[in-house]
Amino acid sequence: MARMQANKDKVARWNIADICPRIKDILHKNQVGVAEFIPRKSNEWNYEIIGASIHDKWAVDLLNKICSCRKWDLTGIPCKHAIAAIWAKKDEINSYAHNCYKVETYNDFAILPMNGQHMWPKSSNVPPLPPQLVRTSTKGRKQKLRRKEPDEVGAIRTKMKRKQNSLLCSLCHNAGHNKRTCKFNIVQPDSQVDESSSYAPASSTRAKLPVRRGHVAHEHMQCAQEFDS
């Protein structure tokens, strides 16, 4: 409120029949390049604006302040095509701006003062309550869907589920389990090793023959005596 009143004090030095300075700057920018357009008069208020090409045409209605480019309709500030038509009519451009941009309109409105909260009328309704706290789990996959409110209807699933074939056992040919979990899969004991086999176990060690050291020494002495003789 104080800011708006400070601006009003500045506006007091302006011409009350004029428009605001910022709107004037926009109108000056829109006037650049208007000389390239060719206005053709249809009647007192309607004009056809031709651009650089004969196919570039815009319809301007000065009475209703409408242009086919829609910029004048949306902003309330005359566009380039409207300015070309206003110049052809030899009127004042500022008079075709919307009334909300005039200095007089800016001075007419004000933010009125209000009482403090202790002077507000009491209400018999239930005061607003804080929303319920919903604890979300941090484990698992991150949720991508929007969180539903407590009074909302659950989401309707439109996607078809992936087809899941039931398991089929290769032993009993029944559905619901496989060969590994089948109750008819009895493990057969290993066949006993034939004791009469000629192959010894791999862990057995081969017996070593005894070394007769005395016999070898006696034969060595006999050979030495025969060599000396």
Walk me through the structure.
There is one protein chain. The protein has 229 residues and is of the alpha+beta class. It has a domain at 20-98. The protein has helices spanning 2-11, 21-30, 71-75, 80-89, 103-108, 213-228; strands at 38-41, 46-50, 57-61, 66-67. The chain is elongated, with a radius of gyration of 53 Å. Mean pLDDT is 80; it is low at 191-200.
Largest sheet: 4 strands, antiparallel
Q: What's the helical proportion of residues?
A: 10-25%
Q: Structural class, from secondary structure content?
A: alpha+beta
User: Any idea what the radius of gyration is?
Assistant: 53 Å
Strand content is: 5-15%
Stretches where pLDDT falls below 50 for ≥5 residues? Answer: 191-200
Shape: elongated
Distance between the termini: 146 Å
Q: SSE order, as H and E?
A: HHEEEEHHHH
Kindly state the mean pLDDT as a whole number?
80
Number of helices: 6
Brief description of this entry?
It comes from Nicotiana attenuata. By secondary structure, the chain is of the alpha+beta class.
Core attributes:
229 residues; alpha+beta; 6 helices; 7% strand
Secondary-structure map with pairings?
Layout: H1 2-11, H2 21-30, E1 38-41, E2 46-50, E3 57-61, E4 66-67, H3 71-75, H4 80-89, H5 103-108, H6 213-228
Antiparallel strand pairs: 1-2, 2-3, 3-4
